[in-house]
Amino acid sequence: DKPTLDLNSVTLFEMCIILKSIAYQQELMIIAIIHSPSPQLFNIFDDFMLLGKGGMIIYFADRLQNILIFMMLGVTFCGINTETITFGYEKVMYLRDMAAGIRTVLYFLAKVVTDIPQILLTSLMYSLALILFYAYQALFYKVYLIVLLCYMATWEKLGLAAKGLALVYGLILNDATSRLELVMSDNTYKFLRWL
User: Which residues of 85-102 are buried (b: 16+ CB within 10 A; e: fewer)?
Assistant: First the structure.
């Protein structure tokens, strides 16, 4: 039951390859519960069983035999339909690998590459909204840069709606267009002067 618990993705993959070779040599059947397998790991298995509530068997056959049926029903697997959230579940594994001294560059690159389009498009959306609905007299690239930096600063902490509210508050309601001499002379801005 859950042999992959507390293993990083590399060790998990190697363990499953070893288990498969043992099963073939000994002519045994190995049944394993694996949550959110990677595409490479999903391709190792010969058969696939989908369990419903109460342990009821919904599907049991060759793993690729009727995969389109599941896709039509909206049942997706990490090996078939990856999203940005897929990497969110590996955060614990990433931290454990990093603490063990294992190279974590691939985790970082995968996370960044999948997040870049969403960050850029969301920043563009907020920039256009500010230009269309607020008489802000500045060049577009300056507005876009401010929005992009605000979005990236709140990326891990807040949801999309909260990011929008923080951005509107920061740019419009909190007088983000203050003059430089006001920032340098007012003590409320003393922690931000280095910016």
Answer: eebeebeebbeebeeeee
Structure-token pair, residue 130:
């500010």
Contact (Cβ atoms closer than 8 angstroms) between residue 78 and residue 86: yes
Residue partners of 66: CB distance under 8 A and separation at least 6: 59
**Cβ atoms of 62 and 46 closer than 8 Å:** yes
- Say if residues 151 and 119 touch (Cβ distance below 8 Å): yes
pLDDT of residue 29: 86
Per the listing, tokens 């793993």 go with: 63
| Separation CA 37–CA 17 (nearest Å) | 14
> What are the boundaries of each domain within the chain?
9-82, 115-189
* Predicted model pTM: 0.35
What is the pLDDT, as a whole number, of residue 133?
65
Q: How far is CA 46 from CA 24, 33, 194, in A?
A: 11, 14, 59
DSSP for residue 173: I
Q: Cα(136)–Cα(171) distance, rounded to whole angstroms? A: 9
